[in-house]
């Protein structure tokens, strides 16, 4: 096996953390970040709550942050946790929704410890072929790979779909055997973005029946849920109170995510909640202190509020607090 750059950066892949999560009946938080303040909040929250963590970036976030800078941000985050926060929590750097072999290879070569190859928009056989290609390259460097079956509705960065296509339980065993993936993202009713469900309609429950069928086909295999932000009402109200227009923003209930975390679902992706909190606090500061122009005076409070929310997620939703 070739030397893995991520190990030199102090990162880990997902193999061991997923095994512990499946056995322990909790889920690892996978928090997206785009800038320093979000990363500081994630690291601070997980160190304080003693939770393992997956810090993840989309292709769009990687372009925004610059791939070279991103690598050193991840290394800096590990050092901050170890030296300043005195914590040894496991930290994984993950590519969210990689859509080409070239993108996944680039991330592996630059120090990512885990990648997702999302071939769900392709026909089944093409998805298998693409996923297998990524797995074969990644495993040379002991990098873990997440595949996807089924399509989530909604929009997040450049990942979009008008309607959900539920994962077909009859395909999962064949897909895992043919590709060699380490974990599988499934579609059981979650959705990308802040507008997950139609306004006025009852929010449909997650399809736990599909999840149970998948668990029967793949006993003990790590399952991933995307689009799992809860879109807390208090932050939507904060955004709207201070000049925003987020009418009809609805998320997945924390009760359902808590139930999912007790199953084979061992990774739950949360992105929109982080964006929402940061935006709400910044709007509040701008409204209450219109003369303020020091970024530290509005990004700092946003960072602290985000940290508070993530500690809540780890302790009360995912069950990952104290599991590092």
Model description:
This protein is α/β, with parallel strands linked by helices and 324 residues long. It has a single domain, classed as TIM Barrel (Alpha-Beta Barrel). The protein contains 13 helices and ten strands. The strands form two sheets. Strands 1-2-3-4-5-8-9-10 form an eight-stranded parallel barrel, surrounded by nine helices. Strand 1, helix 3 and strand 2 form a beta-alpha-beta unit. Helix 3 packs parallel to helix 13, helix 6 runs parallel beside helix 7 and helix 12 runs antiparallel to helix 13. The longest helix is centred in the last third of the chain and has 24 residues. About 3% of the residues have low confidence.
CATH class: Alpha Beta
Distance between the termini: 27 Å
Residues in helix, %: 40-55%
Assign the CATH architecture: Alpha-Beta Barrel
Q: What do we call the CATH homologous superfamily? A: Aldolase class I
Report the C-alpha radius of gyration, rounded: 19 Å
Q: Based on Cα principal axes, name the global outline.
A: globular
Q: What is the count of DSSP helices, taking H or I runs of 4+ residues?
A: 13
Beta percentage is: 5-15%
Q: Strand-and-helix sequence, N→C? A: HHEHEHHEHEHEEEHEHEHHEHH
CATH topology: TIM Barrel
Secondary structure blueprint with pairings:
Layout (H helix, E strand, L loop, with lengths): L4 H4 L6 H10 L3 E5 L3 H13 L4 E6 H7 L1 H18 L6 E8 L2 H9 L4 E4 L6 H16 L4 E6 L4 E3 L2 E3 L7 H11 L3 E4 L21 H10 L5 E3 L7 H9 L12 H8 L3 E6 L1 H17 L6 H24 L6
Parallel strand pairs: 1-2, 1-10, 2-3, 3-4, 4-5, 5-8, 8-9, 9-10
Antiparallel strand pairs: 6-7
